[in-house]
Design a protein that fits this description.
Among the domains are: 82 residues, Helix Hairpins (Orthogonal Bundle); 94 residues, no CATH class; 175 residues, no CATH class; 114 residues, Alpha-Beta Plaits; 280 residues, Mitochondrial carrier domain (Mitochondrial carrier fold, Alpha/alpha barrel), CATH 1.50.40.10. Helices cover 55% and strands 13% of the residues. It contains 44 helices and 27 strands. The strands form six sheets. Strands 17, 18, 19, 20, 21, 22, 23, 24, 25, 26 and 27 form an eleven-stranded antiparallel β-sheet that branches. Strands 12-16-13-14-15 form a five-stranded antiparallel β-sheet, with helices on both faces. Strands 10-9-8-11 form a four-stranded parallel β-sheet. It is extended, with a radius of gyration of 49 Å. The N terminus is likely disordered. Pfam families: ATP-grasp_IQCH (PF24923), IQ (PF00612), Mito_carr (PF00153).
Length: 1260
Amino acid sequence: MNRHHKLLQTEELYSESIDMIKSAIRGIQGQIKPLQKFIGDRKRDITRLGRVEKADDSNSLESTRLFYEYILEELINIERTCEECFVRLNINLLTATKDRMQPPFYLSPEEMRKAYRTCCDAFDEAEQDQVSCRCFWENKLEWDLDDTQDILAKPRVIGRTEFDEHDLNFIQEIIYLRSRMFSLPRKRTDVKSGHDILHDTVNGKHRASIRLSLKTTDFLQLLKQREAPHVFSHSDELLKLKSLKFVDGKFKTNDTWIKILDVHGNLNESRWHLLLCPQIEKILTRRAVPILRLNPRAIFNFLSRITNFASFTLSRADIIPLLKDKNDTIWLTSWKFQFKMIDGKHIAATVIQAFWRGYWLRKKKWHSNRLYIAASLMWFFWLSVKARKEMHRRYLKKMLVSLQATRELALKLSNEYDSIIEQPHVILHLPSIGLYPELRRVFNPKMFAIYQNITIFRICSVRNPKAEVVYILPVKPTQDLLLMYSDFIESISPDEDVAKRITFIALSQADTFNKLSLNVSRILHCSQESLTEIEKKIAGKSAYFVPYIVDECDMKLAGSFNIPLLSIDMEMQQKFLNASNISEMIDNLGLLQPPHEKNITDYETLCMSLSELLVLHTEISMWLIKLNYGTARKHSAIFLINHISMPFMPMLRREREKHGDYWMEQPSLREEFLQKVKDHLPKVIPNVIRLSKMYNTWEMFYAHMQKFGCLLQAIPAEKNPKTIMVSLFVPGKATKKKPRWLGTVDKINLEAAYSTTIYMLPQTSLDIAKIQPTVNKFARKIQDAGFFGYLSIECYCYLHEQEEKLVVLLLNIYPYYSYAQSYIDWMKFAIGGDYDVESDHFIADISIDPHLERRRSSFLFMERTPDWNETVKRYAVTITQLHHSKFPTYRWPDLKNLFEECDIAYDRKKRQGSNIILHDGEIRNFGKMVAVSSAMITTLKMIRDNLTKLHETLLKRSRCDIRLGSMLFLIKQDRRLPPYVNFIIGGISGCVAVTVSHPMDSTKVRMQILKIPLKATIYNTFKEYGIRGFYVGWTAGIIRQLTYSTARLGIYNTLYDLGTTYFGRLNYPTMVCIGMCSGICGAFVGTPADLVLVRMISDIRLPPEKRRNYRNVFHGLMDIGRTEGIRGLWRGALPTMTRAAIVNGAQLGTYSRAKMMWKDTGLLEEGVLLSFCSAMISGFVVTVTSLPVDVAKTRIQSWTLPSKPPGIITAIITVIKTEGIPSLWRGFLPTYIRAAPHAVVTMVCVDKLRQLYFKFFSSA
């Protein structure tokens, strides 16, 4: 073996590792110092604040100070540990070097053989130099072979030979030599050892290596001179130790003990220093043990048995077997000797520390409870956050899988789309507006479903004979709604095959989420029955989704069904939905758009940008603040320039005109006005901004603006502008096909005047060739960016007066299936034809008589409007929001007949006509109207005549023609009642209601008379009279209801029936007026009974000798008539009638209006709950408006002085002067508690009594 091999030249890596660890610890120490300083400063600040703060805050400051103190102690402990590590590293370096010098005789021969084999492989020994011990299995007897040995492969096996001992000695010599080399210090040459430390430079780095400097003979001579190796034995070393001492709880350092631990590895050393010794010291210190001696041998064995290093805890019972002297056990089992050594004060402290460790916590119990509650809340909050994070993690993981799968499906569809539509396939229309949740919440849930259903003309995709259409209904599928859709399809195409190819699928869980603004795809994802129906429809067929605004649920549905989306994925669509991103794309293409500013997210930037744009573009009067995400009309606001928002704007415009083009070129001309506008706008924007109907306050809109950002864009106001929408289909980029035009639309926005928008198909405003370059350029750009699917581009076009050229501005981009596209699909389906992009015309599928065509082309007939069979061109008009208050009063069959009477029908043969389709089957207030004919002027005239006739017909229709299901908002009635029955039902309902509410009515009167609080009034009444005290005057109340309620409800119901018969659905002011009239009449009839009621209740405040003591209402009436005359029975009639007018007008009118609003929201249906909610609202309004008059009436009717009672105005003024304005609403709570249930009981009784009448007496 070559013992002078180059691998013996090795570096002192161990010392280098130690240096690296030391540098790391110094870095930790460097970080601890500033932390200690910061924590110390904060502790002093908290201590100083604790001296001056209030008692309520001092406890929190004390807790904070203790927290800082604990952190400071921990930092000190870390610093102390770092110092100990320095010392131990130095000790370890020395002991490790000494350990290497020990001969490894404790190693087994097998381990030596393994080391020898390693050395042979490392030193590349030649085969002939190998010793005889390295033999093969053939040299051994067969029975001596290992059973698991692979004999056929002839593995190398080490056999026992006579040279084994020689080999082991040689291995020991090599290890000794290497240990001597590592033990030498750096930069030193030891001539006696035969080693040199050499220094050289390799690749610019300094390297130190150790190399043999002696010859082989010299080295052998040196080995003979060394002492015989000594084998280390821990048993011998432990015998040298007498005991391990702990004095006053602290371990007395023992070098021999530390050496033993070092020799046997850092594990025992760590167990002793970090685990066992600190716990022994803690126990001995707590028990005040002055001295304790432990057996080293027992301690060593105990250390060796510790397995769970992390959670080991030492107890007193564990220390007892480790004692050197068993007499020391008493220190750990008793306090006898400790009490003898220390005085009473220390004894008490020791006992408290030992047995009352929770003393401090109990002393601060109230503070601990607060900390515990806070910690519990934080804990549960953390658990919920953790659970949500885990749920979101799983959800996002699934979404990523769905996203990738959907992208692959969409890519495949983009390549094969043209071939798919030529074969039988299924189109799944998913009208889901997948906006962000914050943007969806601004919608009313009911209206949001209707808003998604506006694109119902998606079903016109059935015009492709190879296509089956599945439409997911966002609204409730009522019978009338489905019948209306069926009639609509049949009016255009009566072919039975067409109807069979259309399927409407309702959302099975729609009712579950009817109070949330959830988009269709989210509800569909939870509707298992609906998903099952979709699976049945697409089984074994090619299919694809046509979405609206895509969100993650659309992606997941596509992935679940393994069906592609005819759209880009959610992530890419978000980029194209971002208004600021689209605006930047338009700028990069060099196309024109209105003046704007992108990506505004804060108020300061908004004001700054608007100021600069206002000064630059003084000709603009309106500026649109459009959220980056959302719909342009719903999620936006408008800054209108007028004398309030910009009072100095006329002066600014004059200055702009004076300077001309220099105004734009020289900023110095604009600087003064710009600063003025910057100072003015921040003060007025929140007050003058015009928000869309979706937002109630500026704060609500601004919160969305901060989160999503916005685009500030000018609203051009040019002369004779035209807004044109172009709908295109953009193929996938890989197909290398150009974007295909599907149709053009003239868009006329009538939102300001009529709350609707009109689309005229095709556009007839200008030559389409003038906007084709702009549209095609943008479409190709968006196609190169990866877009695929339907695209609509809205252009603002006007003629530049000076340059006399057409200017095309890009206003809005719709990267999805838009409204305009649905109208284009309807028109193609209605005319049975297609769109000709060259001529920009929709061509109908009809045959033209050649004779008529020749006659039409003559000079005399050139200006005549063509008839239906004289041209194949078709022009259509769509009104998106057609509203009429009479629509809900008709069922669809009646409404269809009514439309046909007004010539609203479609002629399949002529391919012209009109239709009206309602948006839903429940509210049915809104719909859309479509009309098509052979000329645009004919279509417009058709719509005008049809709507005029429809409006006149609806006004003339009598109430009796309205079928079941009409919406009555006060009392639901199917047939009219005779007037006398209305009076009877009103009286009975009033009696039942007064019986329920009389206790609170009597309490209210006593509060107003005695001027005491509610609680005291109830207590005094019950204490003096018992339960009967709350029903004092009940008979008078019954008589009053038999007169007052009979009159007011009978008159109201009769007048209401007459009004609805001749005028249809009544508005709120009309209902209030009818209620006031009925209240005045009822109050006049009921005043005598009301007078007796007040006097019977007010007797409580009179002395016994002056009480009237009416036995019942009849006795009171006769007494008043006898003593005060007939006119005395109507004392206080004027304030009573005034109050009744207010009460009945507010109660009945508000009740009707409240029911109307609740029903419009769709949150409540007809029933007791609807009546209750409406009555609570009306009761509140009634109480607020009538209580001042009621207080004055009570004072007048309870007047006991000989002088004439004051008038109602005088009484109110007197109350205000003497008792203050709040006294006018004294008794508000009992009045409201009485008014609301009274209204509920009254109206429920009216409904039930009406039902009983129709059940038993309707035949009569």
